[in-house]
Write a structure and sequence with these properties.
mainly alpha; 232 residues; 4 strands
Amino acid sequence: MKPGFLLCLRLVAKESKKNPIMFIGHYGVAFLVKKRVSDIPLWLLFTAVQLPDFLAFSLVLAGMEKASFAPCDNPFLRNHLELPFSHSLAGVLLVSLAAFILCRSMNKKAWAWVLGLCVLSHWVIDLIVHNPDLTIFFGQSKVGLGLWNRPLLTYAVEMALVMTGWLVLKKNVYSYLLLILMIGAFSGMVFREEPAVFRENYMPRTAIVLITNLLFIFIAFLWDRKNRIAVP
C-alpha cells in the first residue's frame, strides 16, 4: 500500500481511539454471511449491516435525529440517542425492503433476501444491546434489552462476534488491517476518554464515526479486489 494511505489509516485509527465509534458486532455478521454467500462482495455486506447507522449519521447531521454526548462512567451509555426514524423497527423494515427491491430491480435476485436480512439484522442486534431507546414505530413504543448496562460483557460479546466471523474470512493483508482497526477503534472507545471538543459538538463527533465506517467499507472493497485478482 502507498505510504500516504498508510498514514491516513494511522490517523483515523488514532482519532477513533479518542472518539465514540460504531460498535463492531454488526461487521461480525457480515463476515459470517460472506462465508456462506461468497459471491456477494464483502463491502456490500458491510454497507447492508450498517445501513441504518448511515441513515442515522445523515439525519443527525441534518438535525432530524440526535446523538449527543451524555456524561457516564459506562462507555456504552455516553450517547443520548433520539433516532425515531433510522432505528425504529418500522424504519429499518422500510430500508430493508428498499435494499431488497433495489437488488431485484438490478437482477440480483439471489442477493435480495440476503442483503435485506442483513439490513434487518442491525436492528435485531441493537435490540439486544440498547437500553430502551429504540422504537417500534417512528418514535413510539421504546424497547431495548440493555446489554450495554454490562459494559465488560458487551465488550466481550462484540469482540467474540467479530473474531468468530473474521476467523472464517479468507486472509490477505486487508483482512488483517480490518481486524486491527476494528479492535483498536472499539477498544479505544471503551477504555479511553473522549476529548472535550467532541463532547461539545455533535457535528465532528458524528462525522468521525461516519468516516471510520466508510474506511472499513473501503478496506473491505480492497479485500474483495485483491481476492478477485488472485483468482487464476
